[in-house]
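Worked problem 6 (solution included).
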Amino acid sequence: MTKNPKSTLPKLVRGETDPARDEGEKVNAKIEAAFEKLARKMRDRADRAKGKLDGVTKADKRAVLLRRFELYADAATYLEERLLHREEQSE
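Solution. The predicted structure is:
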């Protein structure tokens, strides 16, 4: 079987931008914005849980709020780290 000498992919003209690269940059920007938004939301929820924690004296309620704080804070930290990792890869 011989290879067809004609390429079916269009070539870029000098000075034009690559549409696939442009689309990739748009999608990456949307993904990063979603990560940032979700990380902020998780951080806000962690802060609210920690704020409620200070006023509670019952041990079981404190345990629930502390666990909620830990989970939200861990999720926010994970998302923030992923954002940094994505930024390092894009550079």
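Discussion: The helical segments are 19-53, 59-90.
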